[in-house]
């Protein structure tokens, strides 16, 4: 992971189109202790939707965001609102049964309908369109899986069809279509919900990092890095990785993957619809309006965080695919996103552990956060309001399916152990003087492994490469200019500050 972007090859910065095209409100950090009914940690779509629902019911809520709201996975999504989440329904029927598989489809369909209702109620201009969603196969192996998925759709009563081709120059072996799904501009939608939260008396604090929960008091207290305390009846972790584990051992039941997005103007017209490849590496296509043109989002090429090849190669692979399929007029944007996977591909939403009913969590959306997060927010709100929700058991973080959960748990943690050992025996062969400007690499400093980044002016940032979570060795991510942990997905800035958990402490600085 030391290969860099060639000079002049990537002139555009990794800022997502959603954020660049939307002016998002800013909020001050929390500077005093406060008390609310519900403290929500995380200012993405889950936290904001949950806060919106609860504040509308007269509850006093506070959102604590470590960075800026809508700047995490929500700001880096491809923003498909769909119940089609890859080839999952045949698998769910086998592992969880037909009833649970149907519940998963219905929960995400309900989420899409909820978004449609909110857009209509508040007359939100967020480029919401109805689109059919396709999963296509380019190999005989995956063609058989696509047919099985279509058969699962029929069992579950999903409005769908099977087709032999898609409207692109891709030689497909067949595709399954889920009808009447959706896509939108997520930040235009969520900006309005933020306004409604504030109007209802909700509090939003940015640059406020929650690090723990004090459970020794009559009510939970969320503690921030600066030592401020938020007393609440309910504490909800809507951060990307749960900021509080509560002995739920989430680090061992989740793994992180990165994926990549190009925003292009194409030579060929985009026919509409949303497309996803069954074969690996995955490829995803959708469009969004941009200044009277169609910006095509080409995404995929996912891999475990800290374990991929040079980031540049992932973008080049997507670029080659886009050129072959659509013809590239201009590449306007590139960005990457990080997503968490659970053992059985269903998010964890509910009480963080079975004996902590007033500390809730939502995580593990597996790249399908727009629908899953909305379903999660509705469930979280119902739990706080003590109302029935038909999907509580489905999403329960305490569930465990013998197949595939045991196998995935063992494989995942063997992978972690392998990378922990590999990092410790890996010997760096570069020195500081070998690193060019605007490049990063593992180097040797005073006989020890260190992470070196030189900025564009040649200023040197040196950090200890040992992840502060569980001691794995981080690797350089050339595309995002970050240090990424291959074990549990923690990410750090060039100066060692935590970008994404589960790590809470920064990397140590190394002196020359």
What characterizes the major β-sheet? 9 strands, mixed
Calculate the mean pLDDT score and round it: 89
CATH topology annotation of the domain at 17-77 and 187-252 and 345-400: FAD/NAD(P)-binding domain
Class based on secondary structure composition and strand pairing = alpha+beta
β-strand percent reads 25-35%
CATH H-tier superfamily of the domain at 17-77 and 187-252 and 345-400? FAD/NAD(P)-binding domain
How much helicity do the residues have?
25-40%
- CATH architecture designation of the domain at 17-77 and 187-252 and 345-400: 3-Layer(bba) Sandwich
The rough form would be described as globular
Subunit arrangement of the protein: single chain
**Distance, first to last CA:** 23 Å
* Low-confidence runs of at least 5 consecutive residues: 1-12, 416-420
Number of E-type strands: 26
Q: What integer value in Å does the Rg equal?
A: 22 Å
